[in-house]
């Protein structure tokens, strides 16, 4: 049964992802958020406490989808996994451009419906060589099942 398998799923880690300048620039262009703290390393180093350019918080958050593909088991009868939303998001630490991040996923609870499951994940995005995470959130995904 998928519900029991999800509830028993141990904590999962995604692969490390490099947040390089090209990825940050592409996100800036997609969202039209060209604030200098993301794109101008020298100016960000001179004018902010970050020591250089930082990735957008929403870029870091959006990586959860890709990271979840790596950690989610392939269940028979699963038609689709849909982003249902967040109960909590906290941007804990900025991510410097050029840093690597990874997702840490733990199933907090599973709701059952008619042809679907709601999975509540406790997630963090960790920054390589940092004691503090980039973000912590409770993310809800909805799994659509074959009936």
TrEMBL record:
Domain MaoC-like as annotated: residue spans: 15-113
UniProtKB keywords: Lyase
Protein name from the UniProt record: Putative enoyl-CoA hydratase 1
GO molecular function: enoyl-CoA hydratase activity
Record-linked InterPro entries: HotDog_dom_sf, MaoC-like_dom, NodN-like
A matching Pfam family: MaoC_dehydratas
PANTHER family associated with the record: MAOC-LIKE DEHYDRATASE DOMAIN-CONTAINING PROTEIN
EC number: 4.2.1.17
Species whose genome carries this gene: Pelagimonas varians
């Amino acid at each position: 049964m998928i519900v029991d398998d999800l509830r028993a799923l141990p904590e999962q880690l995604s692969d490390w992802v490099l947040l390089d300048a090209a990825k940050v620039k592409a996100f800036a262009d997609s969202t039209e958020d060209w604030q200098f703290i993301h794109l101008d390393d020298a100016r960000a180093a001179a004018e902010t406490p970050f020591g250089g350019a930082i990735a957008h918080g929403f870029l870091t958050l959006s990586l959860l989808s890709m990271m979840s593909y790596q950690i989610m088991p392939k269940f028979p009868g699963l038609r689709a996994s849909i982003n249902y939303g967040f109960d909590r998001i906290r941007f804990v630490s900025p991510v410097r451009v050029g840093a690597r991040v990874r997702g840490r996923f733990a199933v907090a609870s599973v709701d059952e419906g008619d042809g679907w499951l709601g999975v509540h994940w406790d997630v963090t995005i960790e920054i390589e060589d940092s004691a503090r995470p980039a973000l912590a959130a409770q993310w809800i995904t909805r799994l659509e099942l074959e009936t």
